[in-house]
Amino acid sequence: HLAMQPETLREAHANLWRRYAEIWEKHTAYMLTGHMPGADAARDKRFKDPEWRSNPAFSMLRETYLATADFITDLVNRAEGVDEAAKRKASFFIKQAVDAASPSNFLMTNPAALRELLATHGESLIKGVDNLANDLKPGKGNLAITQTDIDAFELGKNVATSPGKVVFRNRVFELIQYVPATPTVHAVPLLIFPPWINKFYILDLQPKNSMIRWLTSRGYTVFLVSWVNPDEDMAEATFEDYLREGVYAAVEAACKAADAEQVNTVGYCIGGTLLAAALAHMAKHGDNRIKSATFFASQADFKCAGDLLVFSDNSGIQYLEDKMDAHGGVLDAQTMADTFNALRSNDLIWNYVVDNYYMGKHPPPFDLLYWNADQTRMPKALHLFYLRRFYRDNALAEGTL
Fold it and tell me: Is 346 exposed, middle or buried (0-12, 13-18, 19+ CB in 10 A)?
């Protein structure tokens, strides 16, 4: 399509060479006078090291890269007559390639990494190679980047420490009831449905940032669904199974445990999508046991689902189906982790490549990233239904589910 837009190509190339000329002129003056005209602030975290501006060679490299990156991504956006889904996919993968090509991602063109290499007499790179080898072990050759100090946390010790007990269990989930922290509690309990992509304790990290503790300290009886981490024997578990054996069963169990007729609910992420579907189903059948629903980062209308739509067209779904077949009917946890990392590759991939492998650092403890690394598998039937009927067809919002 771009080949059929010669004017667009000519204009884009002319603008690129104009920017190159300005960069050369500015840096020539810099080398002659020692003064950089119009030096910009370090807004891009990849280039926060002062030498990206103070050193003419690194400064020119940075600005040339940014000009070229803008040229490439702008060309994709300016292509006319292209289906929006195809353009979205092209933009996403072009951005992945452009971000990967940043000079900050290579040892010999990263001033901070080079300084560390010289200062430690090569020790930083030796440590980095050890870190790389350790990150290749869990994936048996596939890279699983360490984003936090995994050994710094232990469930029940310094994360997920709110006191509670399991009051119900079936093949889909366990229901945790947390111990009240007040002499009296509200009559209507609170039932939370977190995502089944991760573990339950996102709302109960450390005591200082635990929403569960905050809720119980304010008189709420809190129930939390802890979804199963499915094996191959659950490959055929469906979205309807999760609705009936998940939402319906949890509502019934919470009402029974709290001796209540209704529950207030929270749906988080994909757990919120399931809750929204359940509410529609309940409304259709006159079931009013859910008194209220609050949604955290949940989608019901998938029309504007952003970059995740890249992975949910027919070819993307087929790719994932093949991967799930290869893993016995479940989506392995690392695939989901890789997908979410790709959505913010500069922060969640390349930042750690530089720090862990070039600088030889060990990432600091971070409870949220520890939880993020504690991924779960997903049943094939459930995940394919979710991708096809929600992301691809937007069936809930369109009223066709």
Answer: middle
